[in-house]
# Entry
Amino acid sequence: MPCVNADGTLVSSARKILEAARTPGTPVELSDRSRFPLYRVHSALRELADAGMVLEVDGRYRVTEVGLDRLGTGH
Amino acid sequence: MPTSLPRLNEPAPEFEAVTTHGVVRLSDFRDSWLVLFSHPADFTPVCTTEFVAFAEIYPELQKRKVELLGLSIDSVYSHIAWMRNIEERMKVQIPFPIIADLNKEVATLYGMIMPGESKTETSRCVFIIDPKGILRAMIYYPMALGRNMQEILRVIDGLQTADEHGVAVPANWKKGDKVIVPAPKTMEMAAERVGQGYECVDWYLCKKSL
# Structure
């Protein structure tokens, strides 16, 4: 999974996109906040959603409890 | 899978592919322009000069809201090794993803393999796709000929100008040059064209500045 390193930590791009999703946002908003191109945000969000780290509601993505755990910053 | 050729002004064929930036879909590029291009193989001389040249025009492409996506029938490990080699040897970072199309799925979908040239490598194809996912231009180069980056920029400038202003662009046009007013479609329009302030050679060939 390209979002996760071999040691289980998030790759830096995934971490930044997940951080951006602390405030729910559309892919465009998360792209603006994380400063990653939109295609990378779409790609990362698919993987993060499959892993249960973000949740999509009405086109907006927000970090989940699982995602917060992976960010290691507590709830 | 049957070989197909995409057609201009039709939706570009959708795909999902493994790239050096993870798994991407064509639809991930919606809302921006995309230059999808293929090269014959990693670690080959002409392709290396092209990747350096693509990296050099990347800032200009970004100004035009254009993303780049490369492709060859090589593994993602080969792509990574080649990108690292280019960075190490030529001090150039390749900022865009490259599809590892080992099963030739995308290459076949877009008609990138020219069996007369090679049955195992993609030719130098360029597909320009607009923000709505419509294929707007195709350029094919043979393996022995490296692409002209200024021409790719010119095509994008021309398409964006044509879309924005409802005009066409003449031969050898470049940004800032006069553009062509679409030819009149009726006798009435042809008659009324005269006196509208355009620079006309005749009723069917009129130019204007933007």
